[in-house]
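Task: encode each sequence below as C-alpha cells.

Item 1
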Amino acid sequence: MPHSVDDFATDDTFRFDFDAFIRGPPDVEAMTEACVSGDLTAVQSVFKTRWLDKAPDERLARDMFGAGGLCEAITQDDANLVQFLLSNVISMQSCHFRLATEYHAYSTLQLYLDRGFDINTYMNRMDPPALS
C-alpha cells in the first residue's frame, strides 16, 4: 500500500542545501572564485588565508582545495595561475592534462610537459593517452 504524505516527516529543520553541495566547502569556493578572476594575487591570498594560516588539522586536502581552481585556470589557459597552483597547492594529475587538451590550453600543456608529465600516460583503463 502506498504511503500517504502524513507518513513522511514534514519537519522543516532538515533541508539539504544542494547549492552548497555543488559549490563545495567555502574554502574551495573561495579558491575557485579567485581563479575565475584570473588574479594571481587574489589566488595567493586565498591560499595563504584559507590554507596556510589554518592549523594542519583544520585544512582540507591540498588536491581537494585546489582542484576547482586549477580547472578554471586551465580552461582560461592562464599559465601563471596553473604554475602557482601546481607549485604550491595541487599535484599534477592526468585528468587535468586531459582537460587542458580538450580546451587547447597549450601553455598549460607545456607546463605539464616541462614538469615531466608523460604524454603516453593512459587516462584510465578504457581511455588512451590524451594526445593520441
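Item 2
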Amino acid sequence: MSVAQFNQLPRTPFDPSGLVPNHWHFSLRPVPLRPRGLVLFIINPASRFVYVPGRIPLSFFDAPRETMADVIIRILIMAFTKPDLNQSRPWSWSTNNAEMADAVQEGLTEFGVADGLDVVEVAPAEENSIADEEWTNFLNRLRENTRNARNTMIRTPRTDRSGDGLMSRNHCDCRK
C-alpha cells in the first residue's frame, strides 16, 4: 500500500473500541531463535495488543541509518494498512531509541506521511517497560510454540510400530 493510501485511512485519538489511546510503540528486537533475525515489535501500550509483522535479517542491524529508517517505515505502513490493525492510522507513535526516532521521523517526512504522523516520540520509561514486558511474554510464547512444534506427534498408521497410531518425527520410517 502506498503512503497516499495510508494517509487516506481514518485516524482517531482512540482505537476503534474507544477504550484506549490510539498510540503505538515500535522497537527493533533480536529474535534468538533460528533463523536468527530482528523483528519490528509493534505494541499499543494501553491495551498491550502486540503485532509482529515479520522477520528482518540480522544484516539489517548494520545497515546505514537511512536504510534502516526506510525499512522500518515500509513495515509500519504495511502493518497499519492490513486488516489485523483495523486499517487505521495511529494517532501517535513512539520508540525506545532516540536515534531510531530521529531517523524514522526524517524518513516519514520524506515519504510524505501526513497529519502529524511524521513525529516520532522517544517513549517514556513506563511505556518502554510495558514493551519490554510484553516482548518477554511474546518471546516466551514463541519459544513454547517452537518447542511444541518440535515435539508434535504425527499420526502415521502405515509406519506405526507401537499400535497407538502415533509416531514421533524422530522415529519415522520413511522406507516404502
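Check on item 2: The chain has a mean pLDDT of 84. The beta strands are 23-31, 37-44, 49-51, 55-56, 92-95, 121-122, 153-155, 166-168.
End of task.
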